[in-house]
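Bench log. Compound arrived from synthesis this morning; before running ITC I wanted a structural hypothesis for how magnesium ion sits in the protein. Inputs:
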Amino acid sequence: MKSKRRDIDTTSHSDNEPVRTPYINTIPPEDEPFFPGDRDTERRIKSIIRWNAMAMVVNANSKHDGLGGHISSFASSATLYEIGYNHFFRGGDGERPADLIYFQGHATPGNYARAFLEGRLTEKNLHRFRQELGEAGGLSSYPHPYLMPDFWQFPTVSMGLGPIMSLYQARFIRYQQARGFLPKKNEPKIWTFVGDGETDEPESLGALTLAAREKLDNLIWVVNCNLQRLDGPVRGNGKIIQELEGVFRGAGWNVIKVIWGSNWDPLLAKDESGLLVKRMEECVDGDYQKYTVEPGSYIRRHFFGKYPELLELVNDMTDNELRKLTRGGHDPQKVFAAFKAATEHKGAPTVILAKTVKGYGLGEAGEGRNISHQQKKMNEKELRDFRTRFDIPISDEEIAEYPFYRPSADSQVMRYLEERRKKLGGSIPRRVVKAPALEIPPLSSFSYALKGTGPTRVGSTTKGFTQTLVALLRNKKIGRHIVPIIPDEARTFGMDTMFAEFGIYSPKGQLYEPVDAGTAAFFKEAKDGQILNEGINEAGAVSSFVAAGTSYANHGVNMIPFYIFYSMFGFQRIGDQIWLAADSRTKGFLLGATYGRTTLNGEGLQHEDGHSLLMASTVPNLLAYDPAFDFETAVIVHDGLTRMYEKGEEIFYYITLYNEDYQMPAMPEGVEEGILKGLYKFKPGAKGEKHKAHIFGSGSIMRSALKAQEILAERYDVSADVWSATNYKSLRNDALKTERWNMLHPTEPLKKSYVETLLDGEKGPFVAVSDSMKLVPDQIMRWVPGGLFSLGTDGFGRSDTRPALRRFFEVDAESTVIATLWALATKGTIDKKIVANAIKDLGVNPEKMFPEILSVS
Ligand SMILES: Cc1ncc(C[n+]2csc(CCOP(=O)(O)OP(=O)(O)O)c2C)c(N)n1
Ligand SMILES: [Mg+2]
């Protein structure tokens, strides 16, 4: 009877419904393993951690109202974590690699409280929770490797991103094994703690099938089903555990439900008719939440009272005993059984759906209440109740100070804790950077880029980059470290030629003969394939980028990811994941291909990107380049490789790539520094002209600048120097830094930023033209002598030919000439009539259509 209940039950559902099992534990009591720990001592440890986690939040908020923090998420998941810490989570000491653990972001107080007990953090540290700006620093609100680089590995608090990142992390480990970077022996587990509310994020569940398809049995997710999110129940009118079971089973995962604690077992054993299970299934999560906050008498009346047989079943139990019937996620025995089964499961990833109570132990202060998530303060009575419930030796007199508690080092509790962690390989989480540096080939190895196309051929910066990438992949020293990541777009970028030579990673190899077998560029899948061709999946592709780009810290080996994507579907679509990449100290290259609002011309509004460079400006440790020529791209990539992989700088790069073919010049002498700093004079204007001006060009629109230079000289007696502006963001940051230094050192000699030094003494107005929004060049406006007049592609893109679009957005050569003449006219250098004539002569209709941009008027 018992085992029958646990069989997969498809009978009560129509064929279209996902497969679900009854609302009871997946592992029956008779199959539970022996619990090898000391239950009492572990309970003591857990109670102390509960106290310190709570005290840390209450302490911070009593001193500074509004610092925030969360008590009830960890309160609900303490048993889940503690079973992990005492029995499963491997640390990194010794031969075996550490497990990789994605902790639920807002359960962070629990991590700090444990680190305190383990002696990794001091009381002073705990007093500085969410107060990071003191001299000794503080503890970050959530897991942020950027802020605590020796402690945290994985940012998780932007909901949904931890789950998808962990999935691709598990997969990337397999990729590294297949390619000989990591041993298959002693493979670490990836543990991911997910909130039940968090599963509503599309990113959380969006890539589940990949984990099953690739048999990622190194991956274990633990969904803390406390039935609540921030505002209220996750599924008040349904059951989140059942819903998730269907989703995960349907996706091919091993599902272990941990719903009921051990004290339900005798009742379930007596439930011969199945009525108790029926009742369990009838109730919705809203009911279960209510049973948490109500007394035992309510549970008797409303839960068991529905059927006389069930009332009978609990006849010999007191109300108090009914109230104490626990949920599985709070029962160490049940959680241990689930974790053990998960770690031993082969052939598929496992999800543990653990039912818990939000704010467990907070009592009236928030246990199971809708306000629970936001609870940050507790009054004295609530503190005393909490103290008494968890038996913390703190007196009534001391309690108002919210003291932290750590037993003496030689106490049995502390010795147990220490011994457990020692056995498991030391403390976690720990972020350790230990990857050996790589030997970067000299710039001269990109000779084709440095030489240019010559006068008879043309190429685009995308093609040039592909050559650079192929050269790197073929390099004997670093070639195997390169990880090309491409969503379903390699053909768009002309990179399909790489498939056959380097192979597309697939754990199954290639089970079929590809239709294009025999051609030079056939679709080759291979077990040790180097390319990650991720499908139409930018969220997954950038997760691979982060997994590869943090391998230097998480696996001790430098991998070099080049993630090339349709630029519009980069920052705009997965911007939060790029922000996470930055927080994670990811190293690598993001390539925004088909960039340029007018260069990508036929695709229209949703594809044509003229603003990702602006978005890239918002990411602090990201360098953002907009090269015009292949030699610039090569110099930038080479410098990036050197800085990140030879010198170990924890930064990353965004480089735009265009798909317009034109002649690529050879690299002029002495321009490398300028390329890297963001601006250099590419082509001085003709000598002997009457007037002087300057044009900054970027990307493929550099050609408008060069053409304008010719027209200005030939027809308007203007000598315009053309500058290549490769990086406005860096120019701005350097200028801001210099300006601030001057302000704060007012009596010292003034320093000059790079852009000020470079432009010092240059005469004439400055005009910028690019395929980006005007705000991109405007970033440096106030440091350009006499200001900067920017042309750019503000507004929605649309489809037409490149010339038509460039006229429409006013970034073509003619518009650049007019802007330059206008800039001269506004300075009084030339007559305004010359501008008026030019508008006519150059065939620009001043009343023409222009992208509408809403203004305040
Ligand atoms: C993308 C995103 N949206 C919103 C939030 C704000 N937020 C933090 S915790 C939380 C509720 C979490 O509920 P659940 O996932 O069930 O976790 P629990 O605390 O219940 O364990 C919300 C909405 C966030 N951190 N990230
Ligand atoms: Mg929840």
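What the model suggests: The chain has a mean pLDDT of 96. The chain has 34 helices and 18 strands.
ITC booked for Thursday regardless.
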